[in-house]
Amino acid sequence: MTQGLEPVTIDALTRADADRCAELEAQLFDGDDPWPAQAFLNALRTPHDHYVAAREGTTMIGYAGIARLGRRAPFEYEVHTIGVDPAYQGRGVGKALLDNLLAFAGGGAVFLEVRTDNAPAIGLYERNGFVVVGVRKRYYRVSGADAFTMRRKPEGEQ
């Protein structure tokens, strides 16, 4: 994927990225309890979590994370977060990040929560096989906004 003059790459999120993640969180989720840098540092220490960064050159322009749930296969997965710098939204960066998370899930069932008014994100998830399975009232503590719980079926499930 190429944006501007430099290709966008997806690689491992590092401890050095935590401050930039928190900066983007504050822009993207202002009013909805954005994660501080420490939350990303904590997630990077969890052995069954998978966090990645999208970069254009040396600039981190997005991030995403997913957790493997359970102790034995078949595992389920939960998307923790996907965020893309507003200047890069609508250019396929979120899709590339989601594709990476889904590859990590390896065909297992994947769940996520998304604000009910976040039409671009809901559209991305629906185009990638997610369906709404419930509503979590007042899921976002600060704003009180509701969230859809969405699920992507595991491979082989009818």
TrEMBL record:
Keyword Ribosomal protein (UniProt): yes
Keywords: Ribonucleoprotein, Ribosomal protein
Domain N-acetyltransferase residues, every copy: 8-155
Record keyword Ribosomal protein present: yes
InterPro entries, alphabetized: AcTrfase_RimI/Ard1, Acyl_CoA_acyltransferase, GNAT_dom, MshD_Acetyltransferase
GO annotation, cellular component aspect: ribosome
NCBIfam families: rimI
PANTHER family: L-AMINO ACID N-ACETYLTRANSFERASE, N-ALPHA-ACETYLTRANSFERASE RIMI
Annotated protein name in UniProt: Ribosomal protein S18-alanine N-acetyltransferase
